[in-house]
Write a structure and sequence with these properties.
It contains 3 helices and 14 strands. By secondary structure, it is mostly beta strands. A hairpin with a 7-residue loop joins β6 and β7. The chain starts with a helix and ends in a 9-residue tail after the last strand.
Amino acid sequence: MPASDDHASWLQDRTRAVTSATGNLSLVETRWTGDLPDIDAARAAAGPTVQVTPLTRTHLDTGAPEQGLRFWDADAPAIRAFDRIDAYPYDPEWVVFGEFTPVSVGRTVPFEHIRDNGGTRELVVPGDIHATIQGQDVTLAAFDDGGTLLLVFGDETNGVETYGSGRFLFVETDAAASPDGPIPVTLDFNRAFVPPCGFSAQYNCPLPPASNRFAFPVRAGEKNVVFRDGFDIYAA
């Protein structure tokens, strides 16, 4: 399959994912309960189109685990108002190859999050990504997202052409490479995507650290979420 066709299929898959019953657009409430929540009671009280799932996080100040619930509505206002995700045309020049150098001990890097008012949360960054992008040698911090490297990056298009807080990119690694040395990686910026907080105000997305803020535009991947009739996720 030509790369451009494969990219078109990826964009279609993204649309299906974000509009699904538990996709990014369907998240209508994140409720932090402190104690272990009564999920059965929450599900019993929810409407017929709503699903309830548990979640945990670390308290920003104490480091203690916090318990909560998420409410997903298959008939959410954001789904009804959704029009499309704007994206740049596929550009093979934005497929970048580099190397990932693992660290022997789990390392964390402080990431600011969009809803934490400047506070930081420590995320596991299991190594460094080295690549040359637009003629610049960069060292990037991608954190471990369930066994996959996730790069949170910013560039000069943010807030002008693309989502203001930055974008996400899953980093492809060569699983066959030796774990004892640098691992080849692919950064296909054509698959850069708007983070979940661009679809629902109920998410608390990490922001790009200084090492991942590019001093040049990355005109590849998704740009912004487009809603009909002036819909605003922060006013919903």
